Known about the structure:
The structure is a single chain. By secondary structure, the protein is of the alpha/beta class. The protein has helices spanning about 10-25, 40-45, 55-60, 70-80, 100-105, 140-150, 160-170, 170-190, 195-215, 220-225, 230-245, 245-265, and strands spanning about 5-10, 30, 50, 60-65, 90, 110-115, 125-130, 150-155. It is built from 12 helices and 8 strands.
Amino acid sequence: MTLTIGCIGCGNMGGAMLSGLARHGGYDLCGYNRSPERMQPLEQQGVHVLKSPLAVAQAADLVLVAVKPYQVEAVLREVRPALNRDKVVVSIAAGIRRQRLAAFTDNACPVVRCMPNTPALVGKGLFALCLEDPTLTAAHKQVVRDVFAVLGLCIDMPESKFTAFSALIGAGPAYVFAMMQGLAQAGVTLGFQHAEAHAMVAALFDGCAAMAASGTKHFMQLRDDVCSPAGLTIAGVNVLDRAGLTGLLVSAVLAADARGRDMEKE
């Protein structure tokens, strides 16, 4: 029997997930978005466009809730009549704990928390999955893992680490893009065209990520391998060290973590 996956909220992240699943094939897909025009490209990929969140929940075995955090409670209460133990709700909303999600559904079905990051938009996402709901069966858990594995790398994670994951990995692309912007700006200052600098910096990060992912060396060793004695690279690295780049990155992640913990209390 083909699994039906429905997505409520098909903006950037929800739309990217449905699009990735459509490219993979093998699922029946449906979705709803408040702005109908956002559904047009998804419909062209074979996603069934439905008229309401409730209609999505009625049709789907796996219900992805990809709306803004402040909208989650209203959406889950709206779809509550369609939920039962055979369905699974997956929320990607930051700052809303599993117990609250379950309460919004009146504990009608198993719930899963998922924290993605924006590289999911290009099929390179990293997804933390909280599978701690005691009503989740082993089959449910495997279905969720299999679905998100289509979209990127999945990690089973206790909810106690979700805010830390959000601060480091969920917010991480913002830190990386800030560094990329700085390098591209330096390239333009040195006389490269904007498009040239953009392309070169993107390729630089792609190559460095592949080297880091190979896992053969620590990050610091990979950095030091580029630094020849008395060379131009070490001159640049010394400036970064004096400015405390590493410490700034740590501080940024810790600030994001603190804000995330505050959000969970609001």
